[in-house]
Design a protein that fits this description.
The protein contains three helices and no strands. By secondary structure, it is mainly α.
C-alpha cells in the first residue's frame, strides 16, 4: 500500500482538481474487506416512492439543505405523532 502525499495548493481550484482526479486504489489496503461497518440492531428499510413525490421531496430537501432521507424521516415522524394525538 502506497502512502498518499498531498501537495500544497495555491488555489481551491487546484485542490479540487487534485482530489477530483485522484485514483485512491493504490492507497487502499487490499485485505479483501474494503467495506467494514457496524450494523445497528435497528435496520433501515427501503420504500418505493412515486417519481412525482420524489421530485417534490428532493426540491424541499434542497431548499432546507438536508438530505432527502432526513426530510422523509422528519415528515413521517411528524405525521405519526399527529395521528397518535388524533386517535
Amino acid at each position: 500500500m502506497n502512502k498518499l502525499e498531498v501537495p500544497e495548493f495555491n488555489t481551491y481550484e487546484e485542490e479540487a482538481a487534485f482530489w477530483d482526479n485522484l485514483d485512491t486504489a493504490p492507497f487502499m489496503e487490499d485485505d479483501g474487506e474494503w467495506f467494514r461497518f457496524e450494523t445497528p440492531t435497528k435496520r433501515a428499510i427501503r420504500v418505493a416512492i412515486l417519481p412525482e413525490v420524489a421530485d417534490e421531496l428532493i426540491q424541499r430537501a434542497r431548499a432546507q439543505r438536508v438530505s432527502i432521507e432526513t426530510l422523509v424521516n422528519v415528515l413521517l415522524i411528524e405525521r405519526l405523532r399527529e395521528s397518535a394525538v388524533q386517535s
